[in-house]
Amino acid sequence: MKDVAQILKSKADHKVYTVSPLAPVLDAVKLMAEKNLGALLVLDGEEFVGIISERDCTRKMLLADRLPRETPVRDIMSSPVQYVGPRHTNEECMALMTDKRLRHLPVIDNGKLIGLVSIGDLVKDIISEQGFIIQQLEHYIAGVKG
Domain extents for the chain? Predict the structure, then answer.
């Protein structure tokens, strides 16, 4: 099973998209829509302070009847945030996400933000690994019969 560092390397887009805690929620939503993302990490300068997700926007904005142009990200972001290190395995991440009902996990190495893995990243990795195992088993079976 791959670790988070390997999963991050396999991602097509290595960029970590972030937003300031002082930015209006509308800016965060626009960036998520533009980049087709479900969440953004919130950085205050270089310091990782939270995460804002589509879920935060719908539940904490719409249900509270807040205005996205006037509400800063800090008012609705989730904080503190569960995170993992680069050596955590896919399996450990999936267990944490399932237990805590998360869809995104920031990756922190020596106190520095190095990436973000989503449930989609982890599922894609599992499917790829299963495909490889099936292929190897097919080759083994074909070799045994031949």
Answer: 4-145
Structure tokens at 50: 């939270």
Is the separation of the CB atoms in 25 and 70 below 8 Å? no
Residue 144 pLDDT: 63
Asked if CATH classification 3.30.450.20 holds for the domain at 4-145, the reply, yes or no, is no
pTM of the model: 0.81
Going from the C-alpha of 145 to that of each of 5, 27, 134, 139, 140, the distances in angstroms are 39, 60, 17, 10, 9
pLDDT in tens, 119-144: 999 988 888 777 667 777 777 788 76
Picking from 8, 61, 16, the residue whose alpha carbon sits closest to that of residue 39 is 16
Which of 84, 85, 86, 75 is closest to 52 using CA atoms?
A: 75
